[in-house]
Specification:
By secondary structure, the protein is α/β, with parallel strands linked by helices. It has eleven helices and eight strands. An eight-stranded parallel beta barrel has the order 1-2-3-4-5-6-7-8, surrounded by seven helices. Helix 6 links the parallel strand 4 and strand 5. Helix 2 crosses helix 4. The longest helix is centred in the C-terminal third of the chain and has 18 residues.
């Protein structure tokens, strides 16, 4: 059963903040191309994330690390062309901001100028403070990302749940408070205990979007290819598949191949 959507002409950081304050959950999905972005926007999604997960689902890499800034800009440009309502956030890819705040600023400006996106997202807390400050000083909205940070996969060595121990949980809380104080408009929390997700959402004044962070965050985000069942081998506990497009598309293509081979397609009605 669909839920009636408020008629909002354009989602902005101001609208997202008001949603948190009013207790309205925020919906967020990834998008990487024009056609999908147009569908998701028409459905009423609040935020579209041009995620560096494009490295996985679009390019077939094992991790998010290989995707480049130029490739992220290309995907962002495609998404922006399909959007009228949603707020579009773009991941700064690995190597475009870590350890060099000037490079981080230049990367963020390139995304904003060349794609027309509305904000950028960075992974990390205190260790990227200077980069966040520099980007915000240029007037570019920043979304934070804490918990499981896929760009640091080789540091962690696993995609298992983060912040289960007290010390790491406290650091995550401290980092979330820091990001909010610096001026980030929202924070993504990935794959952490639900109780911690609830605590962070209640502790920081900005919207907290969860992915595997429990139901008490201010919103949820998933990878659209997972939600629609285009991927089939990725089955984390936090994922709910709403379709099984892998099989649907596969059967459709098999039928097309069969019709071509048999001569059934095109029929007389499908010719000029």
């Amino acid at each position: 059963m669909s839920v009636a959507k408020k008629e909002i002409k354009r989602i902005t950081t101001h609208v997202l903040q008001a949603m948190k304050e009013q207790g309205e959950k925020i919906s967020m999905l990834t998008a990487y191309d024009f056609s999908m972005a147009r569908i998701l926007d028409a459905a009423g999604i609040d935020i579209l994330l041009v995620g560096d997960s494009a490295s996985n689902v679009m390019a077939g890499h094992e991790t998010t690390l290989p995707i480049t800034l130029d490739q992220m800009i290309y995907h962002a440009q495609s998404v922006i062309r399909g959007v009228e309502r949603a707020f579009v956030v773009v991941d700064l890819p690995f190597g475009s901001y870590q350890g060099n705040s000037t490079k981080a600023l230049n990367s963020a400006i390139a995304i904003m100028k060349e794609s027309g996106a509305h904000a950028v997202k960075l992974e990390g807390g205190a260790e990227i403070e200077e980069s966040v400050r520099r980007i915000l000083s240029a007037g570019v909205p920043v979304m934070g990302h804490l918990g499981l940070t896929p760009q640091s996969i080789y540091k962690f060595g696993t995609y298992s749940v983060r912040a289960k121990e007290d010390a790491e949980a406290q650091k995550l809380i401290d980092d979330a408070m820091l990001l909010a104080e610096l001026g980030c408009f929202a924070i993504v929390l990935e794959k952490i205990p639900a109780a911690l997700g609830k605590k962070v959402a209640e502790s920081v004044p900005v919207p907290v979007i969860g992915i595997g962070a429990g139901g008490d965050t201010d919103g949820q985000v998933l990878v659209v290819h997972d939600v629609l069942g285009i991927t089939k081998d990725f089955n984390p506990r936090f994922l709910r598949r709403y379709l099984n497009l892998y099989e649907t598309i596969k059967v459709a293509v098999e039928n097309y191949i069969s019709d071509v081979k048999s001569g059934d397609f095109p029929s007389k009605d499908e010719q000029y």
